[in-house]
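I am writing to request your help with a piece of structural work I have in hand. A protein sequence and the structure tokens that stand for its backbone fold form the material at issue. Please examine both parts with care and let me know of anything in them that strikes you as inconsistent. The record follows directly beneath this note.
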Amino acid sequence: MLNSALILAAAEGHHVVHELPIPAIWYGIIMFLLLMASLLAIMSMRSVSLRHPEPTTTVQRHGGHGSTGSHGAGH
């Protein structure tokens, strides 16, 4: 008897219900669309490294042809 009285008292308590601003299914749809947009952004940057030209193998000297240093024309 005591158990049923406690269950009825607990059932009659206040229920705090927070209504969602939009239906619950829309949270999943919006998140799916955001993840697909981020995937599209990442996939669009996938081949950026292929667009750049190959690096040159020539060595550029500092100072140009007319530099006067310890390594002059006599070397």
The mean pLDDT is 77. Residues 24-44 form the longest helix (21 residues). Helices lie at 2-11, 24-44, 48-51.
